[in-house]
Write a structure and sequence with these properties.
Helices cover about 30% and strands about 20% of the residues. By secondary structure, the chain is α/β, with parallel strands linked by helices. The strands form four sheets. It has an eight-stranded mixed beta sheet, with helices on one face. It has a six-stranded mixed beta sheet with strand order 10-17-13-12-11-14. The chain has a three-stranded antiparallel beta sheet with strand order 9-18-19, with no helix packed on it. Strand 18 and strand 19 form a beta hairpin. The chain is elongated. The C terminus is likely disordered.
């Protein structure tokens, strides 16, 4: 079977398996990371790695391999979904035991794991011959990413295998991936970084990059499309300018459609009331209530005349309980339509969208919404996360505003598109 690789894909496989400069177990570097933009073919190359491991298995290395991703959900829905498609297209027989997490490719076995805190202990005691880690930059949060890496990498020790690490990922700030492949822990004798921009995948249609670029702020574009390590320390909503994005919106209270954005923190619990007209969002009111529950919030919203507005909320309201009922059920029993709520996007995606909307003058706030204005001016990033330490009262109001903004105007991260899977 011959599969044509893009130049950066070829380079990553060469450095991992064949590069004499690496000098690790039969050639190649011990650790190679393909750092790529959206659509650059990272997961496809993981499928190629599987085929290389199958070749090693057929030559006598019958050890257990590891395939890991940031969470099991991400592993199953995205990573393995594309792997299965590729293997099918290549005519390779395989089976997957979901209970055991074992992918069997013509006898070569791969243990498939999420590395979140709920599943990381499943890897302890295992001896593996090699590892593919997908979305490596998103393993853990802050310093825990390095801890997760140390736990997983310590399992790759089976003497029958090549004991190599192959990572595919988008950048995610200056974290453990940066440290290992560019920063103070980067060992040029043992590790190799290959970077690929979205545009480096010449199989994508000519409008793909421009469509994504038009929906991102500059920092997000550099990270997600150019595969650059970008720090998000400092002011989160840097695109917001009070003199531009606030005004008296009395005349906008009835334009377009009405929506409620909800964040279910207990103190404060926050709601942002918007009107959506054309491609512009107008914030006409806000609720910022301490020591609040969902019953109280529902009453207050109806008293203010917003009972017929559709709710777009933090999607965890399906699980969060107030008085034995989920918050979603409580809202629906009070007459609110919650049907437009979807799975929460990544925080950095929501923040990047808000900055893009500010840049395009698509998000306007009534001057009376002082809590939301305060958030936009004061919320910061700390360790690549929204800072909820310096002032715990911050972030919740802006969160409630960004949920409907994302649902109405946010871009959809492309699913892992299989643009390389035909035999060549």
């Amino acid at each position: 079977m011959k599969v044509e690789l893009l130049p950066h894909q070829h380079d990553a496989m060469y450095h991992l398996f064949d590069d004499p400069n690496g000098g690790h177990k039969g050639g190649g570097y011990q650790s190679v990371c393909l750092l790529g933009g959206i659509g650059s073919g990272k997961t496809f190359l993981g499928s190629v790695w599987i085929m290389r491991q199958l070749q090693r298995y057929q030559e006598g290395d019958d050890g257990l391999r590891l395939i890991c991703a940031s969470t099991y959900g991400q592993l199953r829905r995205a990573t393995l979904a594309e792997v299965f498609t590729n293997l099918n297209n290549w005519g390779v027989s395989f089976s997957f035991n979901q209970n055991a997490g074992i992918l069997d490719v013509e006898g070569c076995r791969f243990l498939c794991l999420g590395v979140d805190r709920n599943t990381i202990d499943n890897v302890r005691g295992i001896s593996a011959s090699s590892l593919w880690g997908d979305e490596f930059s998103y393993w853990g949060q802050g310093s825990s990413g390095m801890q997760v890496y140390n736990v997983i990498s310590g399992r790759v020790r089976d003497p029958r295998g090549d004991n190599k690490f192959f990572f595919t990922t988008s950048p995610n700030g200056h974290n453990h991936c940066y440290d290992l492949f560019h920063g103070h822990l980067y060992d040029t004798k043992m590790a190799k970084l290959v970077r690929a921009r979205t545009k480096d995948n010449y199989h994508l249609d000519e409008f793909y990059y421009d469509r994504l670029r038009s929906q991102m702020d500059d920092k997000m574009m550099r990270q997600e499309l150019e595969a650059e390590w970008v720090t998000r320390e400092g002011i989160a909503y840097y695109g917001f300018k009070r003199e531009i994005h606030t005004m008296d919106l009395t005349l906008k209270r009835n334009v377009g459609q009405g929506f409620i954005g909800l964040d279910f923190n207990v103190s404060p619990m926050c709601a942002t009331i918007i009107r959506f007209s054309g491609d512009r969002i107008y914030v006409i009111d806000e609720l910022h209530i301490h020591d609040c529950d969902t019953f109280k919030m529902a009453r207050e919203l109806k008293q203010r005349g917003y009972g017929n507005y559709k709710v777009i909320a933090d999607s965890t309201f399906n699980q969060r309980k107030t008085a034995g009922k989920s918050d979603k059920i409580i809202l629906e029993e009070n007459g609110f339509d919650c049907s437009m709520t979807r799975k929460n996007p990544y925080v950095v995606d929501r923040v990047a969208l808000m900055n893009k909307l500010f840049q395009n003058n698509q998000f306007i706030v009534d001057k009376k919404c002082k809590m939301l204005i305060r958030d936009f001016e004061q919320v910061t990033f700390l360790n690549n996360k929204l800072n909820q330490i310096s002032n715990p009262d911050l972030t919740h109001q802006s969160d409630s505003a960004s949920y409907p903004a994302w649902r109405l105007l946010g871009f959809t991260r492309p699913s892992k598109m299989n643009v390389f899977t035909r035999n060549r």
